[in-house]
Automatic annotation (TrEMBL):
It catalyses: GTP + H2O = GDP + phosphate + H(+). One of its GO terms (cellular component) is cytosol. It is an enzyme of class 3 (hydrolase). Belongs to the small GTPase superfamily. Rab family. It holds the Pfam family Ras. One of its GO terms (molecular function) is GTP binding. This is small monomeric GTPase. Its cofactor is Mg(2+). Keywords: Cell membrane, Cytoplasmic vesicle, GTP-binding, Hydrolase, Lipoprotein, Membrane, Nucleotide-binding, Phosphoprotein, Prenylation, Protein transport, Transport. It comes from the Eukaryota.
Length: 218
C-alpha cells in the first residue's frame, strides 16, 4: 500500500507482483459536535470517547477494507465543524471521492445546516458536476432519546436534494457505522471505473541499479 511503500526495495525478485488497491478519500462534514470525529474513531479504531475535543482544521485516518471483492484503502478525513475553523478545513476538500454530510438527530440546527455544508463542499472541492457527486447523509447519535429530527424529515431532505442515501448511526454504540462507510465506498466504486485511483502495491522494479554508498539513505 502507499502507506508502506515509501522506498523501493533493494532485493531483486524473480517476478513482479502487482496487486490493485483503490485509494478513496472520504470527507466528513457537519456542524461542530455532531460526532464526526467519533464516527471516524469508531470505524477505524472501534473506540468511543465521551470527552472528545473539538477538531481544529482536519485529521485523517486510513482503513483497509474489501467491498464487493474490491480492495480499498479508505482515507477518512475528519474536519472541524465549528465556523471559526472554516479557513483551516476548506483547503482539504479537493480530491474527495465522497462526502459524508453529517448531522445529529438531537440537534435540529445541525440538520438545517446540511444544505450549507453541501454548498461549501461543492464550492471548495470544485466539484464540476454536483448532481453526479456521491454524497451520503448521516444522522448520528441515534442512541439519544430526545430526538429533534425525525427519520422521515431526514429522508425527505435526502430525496429532495439529490437522492442521497441516508443512514442513522450511533458512534457511541456502533450502530450502522461500518455499513455507512461501506455504502460510501460502494457509491464511489459505482460512480466510475476508478482507474485513476488504482495504486500499485507490492511492486518491485526489476533491473534496478544498486545505489552507491554515498547516495544511499537507508
Ligand atoms: N450519545 C452520543 N454521543 C455522541 C455520539 N457521537 C459523538 N458523541 C458525543 O458528541 C460530542 C462531540 O463529538 P465529536 O465526535 O467531537 O463531534 P465533531 O462533529 O467531531 O465535532 P467538531 O470536531 O467540533 O467538528 C462528544 O462528547 C461525543 O462523545 C453518538 O453517537 N451518541
Amino acid at each position: 500500500t502507499r502507506a508502506n511503500s515509501g522506498r523501493a526495495r533493494s532485493i531483486t525478485p524473480a517476478v513482479t507482483m502487482t496487486a490493485k488497491t483503490s485509494l478513496l478519500k472520504v470527507i466528513l462534514l457537519g456542524d461542530g459536535g455532531v460526532g464526526k470525529s467519533s464516527l471516524m474513531n469508531r470505524y477505524v479504531t472501534n473506540k468511543f470517547d465521551t470527552h472528545l475535543f473539538h477538531t481544529i482544521g482536519v485529521e485523517f485516518l486510513n482503513k483497509e477494507l474489501e467491498v464487493d471483492a474490491h480492495q480499498v484503502t479508505l482515507q477518512i478525513w475528519d474536519t472541524a465543524g465549528q465556523e471559526r475553523f472554516r479557513s483551516l478545513r476548506t483547503p482539504f476538500y479537493r480530491g474527495s471521492d465522497c462526502c459524508l454530510l453529517t448531522f445529529s438527530v438531537d440537534d435540529n440546527q445541525s440538520f438545517l445546516n446540511l444544505g450549507n455544508w453541501k454548498k461549501e463542499f461543492i464550492y471548495y472541492a470544485d466539484v464540476k458536476e454536483p448532481e453526479k457527486f456521491p454524497f451520503v447523509v448521516l444522522g448520528n447519535k441515534l442512541d439519544v432519546t430526545e430526538r429533534q429530527v425525525t427519520s422521515e424529515e431526514a429522508q425527505q431532505w435526502c430525496q429532495e436534494n439529490g437522492g442521497h442515501p441516508y443512514y442513522e448511526t450511533s458512534a457511541k454504540d456502533a450502530t450502522n457505522v461500518a455499513v455507512a462507510f461501506e455504502e460510501a465506498v460502494r457509491r464511489v466504486l459505482a460512480s466510475d471505473e476508478r482507474t485513476d485511483h488504482l495504486i500499485p502495491t507490492d511492486t518491485v522494479k526489476l533491473h534496478r541499479k544498486p545505489r552507491s554508498a554515498t547516495t544511499c539513505c537507508s
